[in-house]
Amino acid sequence: MSLSQWTAVDNYYNNLLLPEDDILDKVRQSAIDAELPPIAISDAFGKYLELLVQISGAKRVLEIGTLAGFSAICMARALPENGKLITLEYEQKNADVSRDNFKQAGLEGKIELRQGAALSSLQDLIRENSEPFDFVFIDADKENIPNYLDLSLKLSRKGTVIITDNVVREGEVINMDTDDEMVKGVQKGNEYISKRSGVSSTAIQTVGEKGYDGFLLTVVE
Ligand code: DHB
Ligand code: MG
Predict the structure, then answer these.
(1) How far does residue 39's CA lie from ligand 1's centre (Å)?
(2) Cα–Cα distances in Å, from 147 out to 36, 45, 53, 123, 154?
(3) What is the pLDDT of residues 170-205, one digit of tens each?
(4) 139: Cβ below 6 Å to ligand 1?
(5) What domain range includes position 104?
(6) Fewer beta carbons within 10 angstroms: which end of the chain, N or C?
(7) What's the structural domain count of the chain?
């Protein structure tokens, strides 16, 4: 089994199930044009997030790590009329590209982007007594996953769904001797969530055009 086969199967299903999407195509192109790293989620995972937001009936979504706004647009599309998505992005360039993309998608009314270190923005939201979020997508620097989980849980309520991306990392997650700070961040996040009471979690491994990785699904009890 190889990346080319996983990509071919992604293409097969995407052709069958996902409609042509000029907006998302433009978002991908904008990331290439701005020379952002090619680490946006796949089309299939974008649709999966959209469906999860829909299934959960979320009205308030929090995203940590915007990049060019691909996943934010996918999730915001599933929000009701009065729904809101707050997305946090460290890089000014990514924030500029994303704000453009939100306008192009006609979603600037539903999506608020806060540029800066996500740890500070999360503390701001806590200080502001933000209403709890119904759905959280953690997809930023992996070193801070334990902190992002901890702060997201402070902004959650019973039933909040938290998805953490990239928790398998080609299987490196089980290498306890790793020197990779991103893998260490994932491992510390896993340890944190395993010891935390009042949450229920599972990890799902994925293969596809983005390689071999996975995500953690956590629900607040
Ligand atoms: C990386 C980050 C991501 O969010 C991702 O989906 C894939 C890779 C990275 O920083 O390596
Ligand atoms: Mg990711």
Answers:
(1) 5
(2) 25, 24, 23, 11, 11
(3) 999 999 999 999 999 999 999 999 999 999 999 999
(4) yes
(5) 3-220
(6) N
(7) 1
